[in-house]
Amino acid sequence: MPGFFLFLFNLLFMLTGKSIYTVSLLTKEVKKLLEASYVNIQVEGEISGLTRPVSGHQYFNLKDEFAQLRCVFFKNSARLSNIELANGMQVILTARVSLYEQRGDFQLIVRSIVESGEGLLRKRFEQLKIRLADEGLFELSKKSALPSLPACVGIITSPSGAAIHDIISVFKRRYPSIRLLVYPAVVQGEKAAESLVTAISTAGSRMECDVLILARGGGSLEDLWPFNEEIVARAIYNCSLPLVSAVGHETDFSISDLVADARAATPTAAAEMLSPDKDHLSRVCKSLQLRIFNAATRLHEALSQQLDLLQTRLILFKQQTEQDKYRFSILSERFSRLSDWMIRDKGIQLSSMLSRIHSPEKALDQRRQHCLNLEHRLLRGAKQRVSSAKHVYAINNQRLSQMLSTYKIENQTIILCGYSKRLSNRMPDLLKYKNSQLEKQAYALQTLSPLQTLARGFATLQFPGEKSIVSSVDQVKIGDELQANLHNGYLHCKIIRLHRNNHD
Fold it and tell me: Under CATH, what is the fold of the domain 2-115?
């Protein structure tokens, strides 16, 4: 910083030819030179030492690994930028260079701020993570189980990357009989997200594999960003096959890791997760073979014992069958004799009952004639009741109509006359009272109007664009711009000197 000011001093000396300056003159000349040379520049750095006084302005330092600058972000500019500053935030700011004359501080007057680089990507990552979590894309209950012994594994990655070679080498070493299918995809750049979605959709629609591996080697957050895109996350969620996400190194974490059915720290770890060791499988097969042999031996012995038991029971069953045949023949003979006797007895009973039954046609004719007589009597009675009811209804209806019309007219006439008389009596008094109130309110409004105060030579001060009134010198500082409101207009003022009254 001293070297910078030395440079400015030499430059001033060359331009003006003066070798001796007062402090105020030097700071003023340097300020003019800075503000004329650096009017609208962009600077990138990290925010530190952020403070927010009650004035609404924001003061902070913008630093990198070698230097730092003082910055001022005035309230009006901060309101337009609509950004929440925080220490550690990586930003690109648009500003003009200036010099605070009272202290001789070199500073940036910030006009606008935007996030930059990895900080912006981190913010987008967290926002997408929260939104997808709220939709339920990360729930464990919706994840598919991985096959314990897959016959075919699909790999979605770049055919020329290091990840595909690591995966193939692990499968050849641990599980050489497995079938591998590669679905080529771009894993970095602007078209990477669309390429990944296409590969995932293709693998899911073909159903050629038992499980998928989404793989990419390590890199920066920007390099790995296609795996944090929303379209990729939804493609993984909608995939019909189980999917393992193996993106980056162990410290890297992406949205695809959260959506996938399982996460592997590296592509190599994903291959080891899906490929059992052949030596281990051999030991397991031998153990299972021995268990099968022992189980078959025990089963053979048990079945032999059951066969001997069944043979013994079969002999006993044949003996019992012969005895049952003999008993059945005896019972069949007894049943035949009994059924013949019952048939003869029931025939006799039926003949006796038929002789006692009267003719049904005659009884039916009697019932029909009785129903006709009842129908005629019912019709005659109903007609008489209806005719009588109609006559009574006509008489009552005529009486009711006469009574209601006379009553309503008389009652409404009395009510209307009462309302008219009350309205005529109260209207003059009401108008007089309302006029009196209006005159009082007009007088009070004229008395209390701020325009009357301004017309007597007074003025109100406020910051341009704000509604609050400046009532104390503590609210302003030298250099602030104010608006003085008079009764017939306003003045645009700038504070060049402050004076405070001392009160005991």
Answer: OB fold (Dihydrolipoamide Acetyltransferase, E2P) (2.40.50)
